[in-house]
Structure formats: structure tokens, C-alpha cells
Task: inverse folding
């Protein structure tokens, strides 16, 4: 397989300076900068001109929508919906904001994001720091999205698992009107016991309630919105089986695989002992395997979004061949810079051509044919 890697030389030159600063501070500055840029009308157009690389072979039809390309921004990058339009201008085919909780909360004590440069990875234990769902909704209302906007919902730290369903209901109702699709996040490792919501009884109760609410909203005249489940990469066989049973029972619209991992294997960077979820290159194979397992179970009946260590067209292509219809990027943005969507798209087009596929959908699940 041709492994062409494009480089953003300006970002490569800047990276050592950026990497000397605290990761969370740089992230906040970047989001604020993007937010300010988005207020200047012509700036978005200029960015778009530099970073776009669209091609009809990259278009993906899913959930009655046309995604211009299969490369999205993963949840957590823009938790509060401050910068989704500049992210669209950078050439991403969709952007997922959140995780948002009903009420504002500060998250865990700082520092809580760590770079693992030798491993091209990150560890974070943010714990759903966000301004609450009302603030996120007002951002979206004030800045109509230039593309398909996903909204990822979760529960507040102080809400016990027994009442978690109420938090998800509150968040779902609040974001429903404003989202292109909605993600039920039960897989972040940094909110105590959140991942227990992936187990049979709790997940059944949660999905049941959210599906009832969606039905209610549709009966009241609202459009039918796509509901996706985001899962962890560290599932026991039993929990994986429970999830599969529930997906079958409710005919879920799709799954996002995966969130960050709690496992640590062969890491070289000094920060590898930090607690939290590991993302980036060290997660890549683990998440691709889960995509493959889901695809083998459901085939094309269950659309999958693959996330975990996507840095290049080859990484995206591996996930697509394993069964993902689209992919998302977070840690890759930190290591490859703002041109990553453009690079992945260029590299993906080369891969498709090389293997004789005329579109992304032709390549989905190719490993199992
Ligand atoms: C700093 C940071 C914050 C994150 N916050 C969230 C979040 O709020 N909700 C969520 O579903 N995933 C969150 N994630 C997980 C990412 O969406 C993604 O699933 C994971 O990082 C794997 O992708 P990557 O290897 O491209 O980073 C976060 C990841 C990072 C690195």
C-alpha cells in the first residue's frame, strides 16, 4: 500500500514552540483564535480556499445526508461549539461538538492533558469540562453551521448513574433542534462510572428512554434525528455482546468507535504514567479491530464512524476497509496540524485509485470481502 505522507512545513516548524507550552492553554488559544477568525466573514473563505480539496469520490451518503467527505472532527476538540465553522473551512466533512452536559461543570483539576510525543499520542483526564447545554445551544444559534454538525451529549459528574438517563434526556431535548446528528456518549473514562452505562441493563434503559423521546418529538412535528452511540475500546467480551444485542434490538442508527483507552502498551514518553484516556497512534490498531468486529456482526446495516489514531490517508483507509463509513480526528490535528483534513483527503484519493475503488462507499468493509 502506498504510504504517502504530506507535510505542513509551517506547522512542523511551529510545533516545537507550541509543544513547549501547556497543552490545554495552547488548545484554548487555538479555539479562541479560530472563534475570532470565524467572526471575520472573508477569513473563512480564505481558509477554505487554502484547505479545500473536494472530490465527488469522497462524498458519503448516510442518514439521508450528503457528507462532502468522510473526515470529521472528533468530540472533545470543540467542547463548547466555539469554532465549528472555521473547522468546516479547514475542509472537514463534519464536526462533532461536545461532550456537553446539562449543567456547566469545571472538570478535573489541572494539568489534565499530557503530550506523549515519542508515541504520537495524548493522555487526557478533562472530565467533561464545559459551560453547559444552554451555552452550547446559544453558540449554535448565533453561528448557523456551514456543514453537518454532530452534538455529543453526556451526564454531569454529580449525577448518579441511577439518574443518568434524566441528564441525557435533558441534553437530548435541548440540542435536538440544532444537531445534524446526536451522539450518546457512554464511553469517556474520566467521569467516574460513566462506562458502566455501557452494560446491559443501564444501556437498555438509556437507549429506550432516548428513543421514546425522539419518537415523541417526531410525533410533535420535529424531524427525525440520527442517534449514534459512542463506545469505549476497552470492553469485556460480555459488555461488547450486551452492546451488540441492544444495537440489534433498537436498530441504532450507527456507532462511533472508539473513545480513548485506559490501556498502556509499550509507550516511550515520560508522561505515559499519567491517569486518563490515551488517544492517538497508540490507540489506532485497537480501535480499528473494534470497527472490524462490529462490521463483521452488522455489515452495511450499521453505519460506523471510526476514530482513534487517524493521522493519515492510510490510517483512514484502514478504518474504512475494516468497515467504517467515515472517520474522525482529534490527536492527529495536534501532531499534523490544520492541514490534516486536506492531507488525509489527498492521500485517501490516491489509495482509492490505487485499489480501483471509485468511491469511499465501494471500499467500506473491503477487508472482509
Ligand atoms: C483532550 C481530549 C478530549 C476529549 N474529549 C472528548 C469528549 O468530550 N467526548 C468524547 O466523546 N470524546 C472525547 N475525546 C475522545 C475523542 O473524541 C476520540 O474518540 C479519541 O481521542 C480517539 O481519537 P484520536 O486518536 O484521533 O484522538 C477526547 C479526546 C481528547 C484527546
Result:
Amino acid at each position: 500500500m502506498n504510504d504517502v505522507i504530506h507535510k505542513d512545513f509551517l506547522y512542523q516548524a511551529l510545533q516545537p514552540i507550541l509543544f513547549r507550552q501547556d497543552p490545554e492553554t495552547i488548545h484554548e488559544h487555538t479555539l479562541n483564535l479560530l472563534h475570532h477568525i470565524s467572526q471575520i466573514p472573508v477569513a473563512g473563505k480564505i481558509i477554505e480556499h487554502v484547505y479545500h480539496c473536494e472530490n465527488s469520490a469522497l462524498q458519503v451518503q448516510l442518514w439521508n445526508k450528503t457528507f462532502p467527505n468522510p473526515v470529521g472532527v472528533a468530540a472533545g476538540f470543540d467542547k463548547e461549539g466555539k469554532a465549528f465553522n472555521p473547522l468546516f473551512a479547514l475542509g472537514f466533512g463534519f464536526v462533532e461538538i461536545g461532550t456537553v452536559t446539562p449543567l456547566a461543570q469545571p472538570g478535573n483539576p489541572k494539568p489534565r492533558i499530557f503530550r506523549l510525543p515519542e508515541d504520537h499520542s495524548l493522555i487526557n483526564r478533562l472530565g467533561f469540562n464545559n459551560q453547559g447545554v444552554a451555552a452550547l445551544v446559544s453558540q449554535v444559534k448565533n453561528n448557523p453551521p456551514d456543514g453537518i454538525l454532530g452534538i455529543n451529549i453526556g451526564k454531569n459528574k454529580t449525577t448518579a448513574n441511577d439518574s443518568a438517563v434524566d441528564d441525557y434526556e435533558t441534553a437530548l431535548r435541548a440540542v435536538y433542534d440544532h444537531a445534524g446528528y446526536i451522539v450518546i456518549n457512554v464511553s469517556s473514562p474520566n467521569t467516574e462510572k460513566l462506562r458502566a452505562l455501557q452494560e446491559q441493563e443501564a444501556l437498555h434503559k438509556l437507549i429506550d428512554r432516548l428513543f421514546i423521546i425522539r419518537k415523541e418529538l417526531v410525533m410533535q412535528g420535529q424531524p427525525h434525528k440520527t442517534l449514534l452511540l459512542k463506545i469505549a475500546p476497552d470492553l469485556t467480551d460480555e459488555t461488547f455482546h450486551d452492546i451488540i444485542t441492544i444495537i440489534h434490538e433498537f436498530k441504532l442508527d450507527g456507532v462511533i468507535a472508539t473513545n480513548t483507552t485506559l490501556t498502556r502498551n509499550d509507550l516511550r514518553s515520560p508522561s505515559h504514567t499519567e491517569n486518563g484516556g490515551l488517544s492517538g497512534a497508540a490507540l489506532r490498531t485497537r480501535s480499528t479491530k473494534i470497527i472490524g468486529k462490529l462490521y463483521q456482526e452488522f455489515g452495511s446495516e450499521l453505519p460506523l464512524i471510526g476514530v482513534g489514531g487517524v493521522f493519515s490517508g492510510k490510517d483512514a483507509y484502514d478504518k474504512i476497509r475494516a468497515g467504517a463509513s467515515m472517520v474522525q480526528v482529534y490527536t492527529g490535528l495536534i501532531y499534523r496540524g490544520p492541514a490534516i483534513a486536506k492531507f488525509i483527503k489527498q492521500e485517501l484519493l490516491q489509495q482509492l485509485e490505487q485499489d480501483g475503488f471509485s468511491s469511499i462507499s465501494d471500499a467500506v468493509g473491503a477487508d472482509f470481502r
Notes: The chain has one domain: 9-364.
